[in-house]
C-alpha cells in the first residue's frame, strides 16, 4: 500500500497546511513533496484542492504559501490573553489621550465579546469588562464588526429577541441592517444613548489581511465628551491604532 493511501484524506490536507504554517516564505512543489515524503503528483493534487478552497495560494516562482483564509483561522483561534498583550499598550495610549475607557471586542461565533480593556477607573468601565457580551443591535463595537460580516452571519446574529434598552435602541432587523450599511460607508460605528441614556461609544473595525473583520477598537464615556472627541478627530486617531493592531495580529500568525 502506498504511503499516501494510509492517511485519511483530511489528514493529508492538514499536513500541508501545518507545514506551510511554519514556512512564512513558502515552499515549492518539490520541497513540499520531499518534506512530506509523498510523490509530487499526489502533493500537486492536494495543493490544487487547497487552492480551490482558498487555503493555499501560489506566489511568483511557483512558491506555495498559506492563503489569507487559512491565516485568518490562526487569528480567530488566538488566545484572548495573547490578544490582550498585543493590544495593551495601544489601549493605554488611547486612554491617556482620551481620558475615557477604551476596549477591544472580538467576534466569537455569532457573539461579540470584549477581550481587552483599559480605563481611567471611570464608573462606566463595567460596561466593557473583558468577557462582556455586546448587543449586536446597539453597541458600537458589535456594529463595527457585524457590519462587515457575511449576510447569513448577520441574519443569525439578529435572529433573537433584541431588547429595547433605551428609547433610541433599534430593534427591527431591517433597520439594524440599514445602520450596518451606514457603518460600512462611514468606516466607524457609534452608540449614542442606545444602551444607556447618558453614555455613548465609538468603534472602528480592525481589518485582517483578507478584509475580514473579527475585532473592533472602541471608546466609551459620557455622551457630551464622546461627541467632543469625535468632533476633535478621535476617529482618525483610532484608525491609526486599528491599523497597528491589525498589523500585529497578522504578524503574529505569519
From TrEMBL:
Residue span, IclR-ED domain: 69-254
Keyword set, alphabetical order: DNA-binding, Transcription, Transcription regulation
Coiled-coil region(s): none
Keyword Transcription in record: yes
Organism domain of life: Bacteria
Keyword hit for DNA-binding: yes
InterPro entries according to UniProt: GAF-like_dom_sf (IPR029016), HTH_MetabolicPath_Reg (IPR050707), Tscrpt_reg_IclR_C (IPR014757), Tscrpt_reg_IclR_N (IPR005471), WH-like_DNA-bd_sf (IPR036388), WH_DNA-bd_sf (IPR036390)
Pfam family, one: HTH_IclR
Domain HTH iclR-type: 7-68
Protein known as: IclR family transcriptional regulator
Lineage: Bacteria, Pseudomonadati, Pseudomonadota, Betaproteobacteria, Burkholderiales
Amino acid at each position: 500500500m502506498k504511503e499516501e493511501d494510509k492517511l485519511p484524506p483530511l489528514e493529508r490536507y492538514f499536513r500541508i497546511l501545518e507545514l506551510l504554517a511554519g514556512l512564512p516564505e513558502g515552499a515549492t512543489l518539490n520541497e513540499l513533496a520531499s518534506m512530506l515524503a509523498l510523490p509530487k503528483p499526489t502533493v500537486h493534487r492536494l495543493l490544487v484542492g487547497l487552492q480551490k478552497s482558498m487555503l493555499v495560494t501560489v506566489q511568483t516562482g511557483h512558491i506555495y504559501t498559506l492563503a489569507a483564509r487559512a491565516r485568518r483561522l490562526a487569528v480567530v483561534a488566538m488566545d484572548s490573553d495573547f490578544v490582550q498583550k498585543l493590544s495593551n499598550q495601544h489601549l493605554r495610549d488611547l486612554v491617556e489621550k482620551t481620558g475615557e475607557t477604551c476596549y477591544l471586542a472580538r467576534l466569537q461565533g455569532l457573539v461579540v465579546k470584549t477581550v481587552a480593556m483599559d480605563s481611567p477607573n471611570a464608573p462606566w468601565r463595567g460596561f466593557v469588562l473583558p468577557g462582556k457580551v455586546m448587543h449586536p443591535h446597539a453597541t458600537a463595537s458589535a456594529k463595527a464588526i457585524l457590519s462587515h460580516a457575511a449576510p447569513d452571519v448577520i441574519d443569525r446574529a439578529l435572529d433573537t429577541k433584541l431588547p429595547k434598552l433605551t428609547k433610541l435602541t433599534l430593534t427591527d432587523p431591517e433597520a439594524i441592517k440599514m445602520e450596518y450599511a451606514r457603518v460600512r460607508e462611514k468606516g466607524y460605528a457609534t452608540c449614542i444613548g442606545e444602551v444607556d441614556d447618558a453614555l455613548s461609544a465609538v468603534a472602528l473595525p480592525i481589518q485582517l489581511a483578507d478584509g475580514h473583520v473579527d475585532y473592533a477598537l472602541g471608546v466609551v464615556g459620557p455622551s457630551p465628551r464622546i461627541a467632543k472627541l469625535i468632533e476633535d478627530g478621535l476617529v482618525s486617531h483610532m484608525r491609526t491604532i486599528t491599523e497597528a493592531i491589525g498589523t500585529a495580529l497578522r504578524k503574529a500568525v505569519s
